[in-house]
Write a structure and sequence with these properties.
- The chain is of the alpha/beta class and 437 residues long.
- The protein is 38% helix and 14% strand.
- The protein has 2 domains: 173 residues, Rossmann fold; 204 residues, Glycogen Phosphorylase B (Rossmann fold), CATH 3.40.50.
- The protein is built from 14 helices and 16 strands.
- Strand 6, helix 4 and strand 7 form a beta-alpha-beta unit.
- The protein is elongated.
Length: 437
């Protein structure tokens, strides 16, 4: 076994082979052969609090379950669910007409949902950016609709998520004399790896400049908001993401080692590092399988890279997976790796931790800020990723200790607590603005 940081490269020439894929039927068959083993300790029950002051929040979002393409939709759903459990009301504003996952206490508004509220902008859910960086008319129509949206007199604040509806939300907040809160989940600098679309960047700047408070999902992102967007530090609050454990998120007997990446196949996610690290681990752990679950624009390039590295026989590209399949994969994995070049938080890593999967993340991941129980590696250090993976696959005692540690750390991060922190941000701005009315 090579020392940490010095994992040897295989001396054999790359093998020429096709990249394997697995069918849904095969994945279901894997699930049927697994033996569920209930962990020794269960997740603590989530407390239910009813706030002494009940707020009415208009939340301007984009997607909501069952329409989810990433962590933003999960965040909005879990936050709305906890806010209403605390006794608050939420009006969720979105450009598409559903169907929506029914959430008690949440009212949905979208273009055309009520008389005199406009008509749905064509193709508004699938935003297309023109060659000159101009945002499609559909997005502008959505912001115009949000700006003119009639609001109830008891609305206490408008809370907008990311850049999609910032212009409309800011205008509505001014028109109704209510405070604006903006949650930044990522920035265009991160998503584009330093080559931002100027139209999107301008909407982000518009939102953070207009907001009375800006919520950042990590300290790393807060620093970027200060340095690149010149947001005063006293207007930023850090509220991390969380994860909701389920009865099925339990450990499984793992007969063969599986190293898992679960997420979008985008350049900022660093999946190429995952594959390059795999090529350096396999000479030492030849029975390991590296699973890539998710889809995205990098898929063709990653297929080619796996073949070029000669590891195709040990890589499974699953494409998009369902929630049940995610549960099976998380329970089946020996190691989870999130090698993002930039990762404002990383909910998938938190899901892996709750499932008791030893987790390796890049140092730029926000999830690394909430626990010391994960291995944090520089995103560019392929040798270090390989070394950490090999250590966890080779030493069961290390894997078991880390499994308990990450699960305990993740269970301390609940959506109920994140909702309480968000309410405290609302209350910072609601009283002063109400006094000015």
């Amino acid at each position: 076994m090579a020392p940490a940081g010095e994992v040897a490269r295989p001396s054999a020439p790359p093998r020429k082979s096709r990249v394997k894929s697995v069918s849904r039927a095969e994945l279901e068959a894997i699930g049927r052969t697994l033996v569920w083993v209930r962990p020794a300790s269960e997740a603590p029950p989530e407390p239910v609090h009813v706030a002494s002051r009940r707020l009415h929040i208009v939340m301007v979002g984009w997607e909501y379950p069952p329409h989810i393409s990433g962590g933003l939709g999960v965040h909005c759903y879990e936050l709305c669910k906890e806010l209403t459990r605390m006794g608050h009301r939420v009006t969720f504003v979105t450009p598409f007409s559903g169907p929506f996952l029914e959430t008690p206490g949440v009212t949905f508004r979208f273009p055309g949902s009520a008389p005199r509220e406009g008509t749905p902008p064509p193709g508004s859910y699938n935003v297309v950016l023109g060659p000159e960086g101009q945002v499609a008319d559909s997005l502008a129509s959505y912001n115009d609709w949000v700006a003119a949206l009639p609001l109830a007199k008891d609305v206490d604040a408008i809370h907008v998520h990311d850049w999609f509806g910032t212009v409309g939300a800011a205008s509505a907040a001014r028109r109704h004399h209510v405070p604006l809160v903006m949650t930044v989940h990522s920035t265009e600098y991160d998503r584009s790896l330093g080559f931002p679309n100027l139209a999107i960047l301008e909407m982000e700047r518009h939102g953070v400049a207009a907001a009375h408070r800006v919520i950042s999902v990590s300290g790393h992102l807060k620093k970027q908001l200060i340095e690149r967007f010149h947001v005063p530090p006293d207007r930023i609050r850090v509220v991390y993401n969380a994860v909701r454990p389920t009865a099925r998120l339990e450990r499984l007997v793992r007969p063969d080692p599986i190293v898992l990446y679960l997420g979008r196949l985008a350049a900022m996610k660093g999946v190429d590092t995952f594959l390059r690290a795999a090529a350096r681990v396999l000479p030492f752990v030849p029975d390991a399988t590296f699973v890539v679950a998710g889809d995205g624009p990098e898929f063709p390039r990653l297929l080619t890279l796996a073949a070029h590295l000669g590891i195709a026989d040990h890589v499974l590209f699953l494409g998009w997976v369902t929630d049940d399949e995610r549960t099976i994969l998380l329970g089946r994995a020996s190691v989870y790796v999130l090698p993002s070049v930039v990762e404002p938080f990383g909910i998938s890593a938190l899901e892996a931790m709750v499932a008791g999967v030893p987790t390796i993340v890049s140092k730029t991941s926000g999830v690394a800020e909430i626990t010391e129980s994960v291995f944090a590696v520089d995103f560019w250090d392929i040798d270090e990723f390989a070394s950490r993976i090999a250590e966890l696959l080779t030493y069961p005692s290390l894997r078991n200790v880390m499994s308990d540690a990450v699960r305990e750390a993740a269970l301390n991060a609940t959506w109920a607590e994140r909702a309480r922190q968000t309410v405290s941000v609302y209350l910072e701005v609601v009283a002063p603005v109400a006094a000015e009315r």
